[in-house]
Amino acid sequence: MSNDIPNFNLLAVFSAVMEQGSLSKAAEHLNTNQSTISTALGRLKNDVGQELFVRSGRGVVPTAFSQSLYEQVKAPIQELNGVFQGMASFDEVTSERKFVVSAPEHLQWLLLNRFAQLPNQGISLEVYDQPDTDDQVHEDLLTQKFDAMIDIVLPEHPSTVSEKLYDGEFVIACRTGHPRIKGEITEAQYMTEKHAVLDRTRRQVRSLSHYTSLDLSQRKIVFHGSSLFSNLLLCSQSDYITVVPLSMAIQFQERLDLQLFQPPFEYLPISHYLIWLKKQNNDPAHKWFRQEIINTSDEMSQLLHHKRPAFKK
Q: Where is the HTH lysR-type domain (predicted)?
């Protein structure tokens, strides 16, 4: 191996391949072609005198040397990327920029509505539903499919950073004309009614049982939905009940003619986090984008504070 430090551009390409998992994705990420990526890796291989990747199926797998090298160079490369991104300009009045975010179902409309009301319609927002697995979360962040994510699960990855947005509450929802629930609900009644529950979980922290010590195994579950809204819609047309975040319930309370109740049992709040890549910390456009999300969260929290006294236990 040569004593000279390899060209920074070669190390940047190498890091991109490590983070993206393939030459083609790295090429797309760096706005170049796969041939350029292969050439750069070949030059770096000659410089360090070590094999970097081996073929596996239709992709490549990093060698032990590459894993060790990446652990040592990723931090300074991210810092340098942050310096150059921080020098880029961004004008919220004239910019034409599309931001992409993944968010929980109960926050999606609030974010879209905020960006729809921006004076500069050249700035737009594209919202994705949340990934179903932790691995997908990491991939979508590292490949920058999303500029940021809002989630209740923090990814355990050194390239990401997060900021807590707010603590949310649950409410129990049923239709206003429910034959047995009128104006209040008890714990016993909650347990005996028929339930529509959210069946999409990740590390089991999307389920209500994670947030309360009440034994929920005795509930009479009749519907396992993959969407909070589908559960609300079902309960608005039946005698079933469901539990949803307060932030979603107030969006549809009047439209679906729903009764909302604080749960008649002790429960923990749901913490929501804004998550992004460390290397985007100093990017002016990304800083502006994060602040818009924070402002949306703050305004929603104020609204929830005013709505909360209306609920009955």
A: 6-63
| Alpha carbon 140 to chain centroid, angstroms | 10
3-state helix, strand, coil in the chain (%, to 5): 45, 20, 35
Judged against a pLDDT cut of 60, whether residue 1 lies above it is answered with no
Tell me the sheet residues that pair with 201. Answer: none
Output the pLDDT for position 309: 43
pTM here is 0.70
Residue 150 forms beta bridges with which residues?
274
What is the pLDDT at residue 96? 87
Strand order in the sheet with 241-245: 220-225, 194-198, 241-245, 170-175, 258-261
Looking at 88-126, list the stretches that DSSP marks H as alpha helix, in order from N- to C-terminal side: 105-116
What pairs with residue 99 in β-bridges?
125
Task: List Cβ neighbours of 205 (8 Å cut-off, separation of 6 or more).
Answer: 152, 153
The whole-number average pLDDT for the span 158-186 is 92
C-beta contacts of 135-139 below 8 A and 24+ residues apart: 139/21
Identify whether the C-beta of residue 211 lies closer than 8 Å to the C-beta of residue 245.
no
